[in-house]
Automatic annotation (TrEMBL):
This is Glycosyltransferase. Residues 201-321 form the Glycosyl transferase family 28 C-terminal domain. It comes from the Bacteria. Keywords: Glycosyltransferase, Transferase. It is found in: Membrane. It comes from Bacillus salitolerans.
């Protein structure tokens, strides 16, 4: 059986890297019975206790010391130096990556996190990996850590990222596919919500960890019934309890929703979403054509995402629900927003999961055919050598 390995990172955190990996795995497994998809967390394989500790440290850091996290991220992972080397990480993890590849023998590797991509890029530079690798970027920019030059294909969020890879890193255009950030197939059709329906229903999301200034916004919500909120609390049990304690009939807290089809139903009920600029939630909302409002931003990646999204007219930033209502009721603003959505989608090479699957299947089949040819050649050589030694 043919095999695709997927490399996200931080197994104990249901991040966008894992969600994108799961989505693409489903694209393949729902269409093919002879391709095995397997997800591997490099840190967890190397040391499960370390992976858990890093996850807890990361969540604590961005909540308690956001400014220092943002500074470190920009210093080490974004616009620091081109072709930056992370030798200390190579020494720790490169052998484990090589070990996994030899053990799993994949036909294709897909990275949804920058760190595994960096290690694989280095292995290819050393001639220690000949398996084709695809980067699937889960933000709206390319950070410095991603492996680039030796990676076979790049799935990018938009045309601007494609141009950046071509201009800054000299990646050939045919190696870059504009796909948007892949999301579950449940989100393939736009929201069926009719805008004239009342009350106006707002999804409020803090991502899988329920982060952001959610309570700051909710405490200002009136009980007049003009707006209803469905609050996606993620795994943040404290937030769920705080929202419940508001005792506002127009505010309903929701626990972490793992089912993508169930999440799709909530999008269908929404007139708008207030969220952080995380790659996956934004991409799901863009697919559903639900107007996106940003109220709070996590440091680092999300700050950079927001810069792009605002520039492209794909999100609105607000301070309160009054601004949201004003924007939603402005027909000209909403018309311009729909035009921005059209421009964003119109530049994509692949616009549905079927096209992504066909492309990935072709890569797997090429690798499998090459392997079969090599096996035939090896058998013939062994036969010839056996005949020679018999003489």
């Amino acid at each position: 059986m043919k095999k695709i390995l997927f490399f996200p990172l931080l197994d104990s955190l249901p991040s966008g890297h894992h969600q994108v990996a799961n989505s693409v795995m489903n694209y393949v497994s729902s269409r093919s019975t002879d391709i095995q998809c397997k997800k591997i967390d490099l840190l967890n394989r190397w040391n499960p206790h370390l992976e858990s500790m890093i996850t807890k440290t990361y969540l604590g850091w961005i909540q308690k010391f956001p400014e220092s996290y943002a500074w470190i991220y920009r210093k080490l992972a974004y616009k620091s130096k081109q072709n930056r080397s992370y030798k200390h990480y190579e020494m720790l993890f490169q052998h484990k990556m090589e070990e996994i590849i030899m053990e799993e023998k994949p036909d294709l590797i897909i990275c949804t996190h920058a760190f595994p991509s960096y290690l694989l890029n280095r292995l290819k530079q050393y001639g220690a990996c000949d398996v084709p690798v695809v980067n699937i970027y889960t933000d709206f920019f390319v950070n410095d850590v991603w492996g680039k030059e030796m990676i076979e294909y790049h799935f990018v969020s938009d045309i601007r990222m494609k141009n950046q890879l071509m201009e800054e890193f000299h990646i050939p255009a045919n190696k870059i596919k504009v796909t948007g950030i892949p999301v579950d197939e449940s989100f393939s059709s736009p929201s069926s919500r009719k805008k004239e329906e009342h009350p106006i229903t707002i999804l409020l999301s803090g991502g899988s960890a329920g982060l952001g200034n959610i309570m700051e916004l909710l405490t200002k919500v009136k009980k007049d019934g003009q707006l209803t909120f469905k609050v996606l609390c993620g795994n943040n049990h404290s937030l769920f309890q705080e929202v419940s304690n508001l005792n506002n009939p127009n505010i309903q807290p929701l626990p972490y929703i793992s089912s993508r089809s169930e999440m799709n139903k909530w999008y269908d009920l929404a007139d708008a979403i207030i969220t952080k600029p995380g790659g996956v939630t934004i991409s799901e909302s863009l697919k559903k054509k639900v107007p996106i409002f940003i109220h709070s931003v996590l440091p680092g990646q999300e700050e950079i995402n927001l810069q792009y999204l605002r520039k492209q007219g794909l999100v609105f930033t607000i301070r309160d629900t009054i601004e949201l209502l004003d924007l939603l009721s402005n027909k000209q603003v909403m018309k311009e927003y729909e035009q921005s959505l059209y421009r964003y989608r119109n530049t994509q090479d692949f616009q549905d999961p079927e096209e992504i699957f066909i492309f990935l299947e072709s890569l797997v089949n090429k690798r499998d055919q090459r392997r079969q040819i090599n096996q035939i050649i090896e058998k013939k050589m062994m036969k010839i050598m056996g005949g020679v030694s018999g003489d």
